[in-house]
Write a structure and sequence with these properties.
This protein is α/β, with parallel strands linked by helices and 282 residues long. The chain has helices at 17-23, 47-56, 68-80, 97-105, 122-137, 142-154, 166-170, 175-181, 207-222, 239-252, 265-271; strands at residues 5-10, 26-28, 31-34, 37-40, 62-64, 84-88, 113-115, 156-161, 188-194, 197-204, 227-228, 230-235, 254-255, 258-262, 276-281. Helix 9 packs parallel to helix 10. It starts with a strand and ends with a strand.
Length: 282
């Protein structure tokens, strides 16, 4: 009889607690360092606290990945309960979290802990994890869960609009895009995640147009009134804009399932207030 599979991930998915509980997810949080104080993502600081502080801060916080020891502690506990483990961290090309998970996995018996580089982040990562965790609860093996996660990752597209490139530039997450986007005043950058990296898509005049453009870009893939298996929407202190986007998406597409959530504080360090993102799986 095959062992049950436990799903481990990091805090960047910003899962609502109800989903963490329902799917029995195990979260290893990242860290935020700000004005001499360290905060554990979602443990010491909530999204609302974080974005309120960021809006008035003259300093830009930095982030750090979880340690290999943090992952190893979770792995040990789950292996002692006779689980196999699938770890789904956010993109290795944006963080060292994947490498911490890999280092920890190497300490345990071969074949018991798999770490998959999803090359996704935030609500797109949530989509992958929800689909995989449901399969795990129904008795899928570690290999089957890994294949489900890989398939989901291949079928997801992500677009997001930021108010400014300042945070991405300072954090070194967008070196290739900064030259393309320039620093033209009042132009709102639209970006995407491609092969695990942040890439520029285009610029538009206003935030409102940027948010509409996210839907248009989705429509270019899905088609008018096309089917979306899973829609994800995130916002960084922009709940009203996120709700407007959600309602408009329902007018344009046939949506089977959706998740609207906050952008995690750790990711907010790199994009700033007002960011809106859209992910969709077809």
């Amino acid at each position: 009889m095959s062992r049950k599979v436990a799903i481990v991930t990091d805090s960047t998915g910003a899962f609502p607690q109800s989903i963490i509980d329902d799917l029995q997810l195990h979260i290893v949080p990242l860290n935020i360092h700000w004005d001499g104080t360290s905060y554990v993502d979602f443990v010491d600081i909530t999204p609302s606290e974080f974005y309120k502080k960021l809006a008035s801060s003259k300093t830009v916080p930095t982030t750090s990945q979880p340690s290999a020891e943090a992952f190893a502690a979770v792995y040990e506990q789950l292996l002692n309960q006779n689980y196999d483990i699938l770890t789904l961290p956010f993109s290795s090309r944006l963080s060292g979290t994947y490498h911490s998970a890999m280092m920890a996995a190497a300490e345990f018996p071969t074949g018991r802990v798999t770490v998959l580089d999803t090359l996704h982040v935030s609500v797109a990562l949530c989509n992958i994890i929800i689909k995989t965790a449901r399969a795990a609860q129904k008795g899928a093996t570690l290999l089957e869960c890994t294949n489900i996660a890989q398939d989901a990752a291949r079928r997801i597209k992500v677009y997001f609009a930021v108010e400014t490139l300042e945070y991405l530039h300072k954090g070194g997450r967008i070196n290739t895009a900064s030259a393309f986007l320039g620093t033209a005043l009042n132009l709102k950058p639209i970006l995407s995640i491609v092969d695990g990296l942040i890439v520029p898509v285009e610029r538009v005049r206003t935030s409102r147009k940027a948010h509409q453009r996210l839907l248009e870009l989705a429509e270019e893939t899905v088609g008018p009134h096309g089917k979306i298996e899973f829609l994800g929407i995130i916002s960084a202190d922009a709940a009203d804009a996120a709700e407007e986007l959600r309602q408009e998406a329902h007018k344009r597409f046939q949506i089977e399932e959706e998740l609207v959530t906050d952008l995690s504080p750790v990711l907010g360090c790199h994009v700033g207030n007002g960011t809106i993102g859209l992910s969709f799986m077809v």
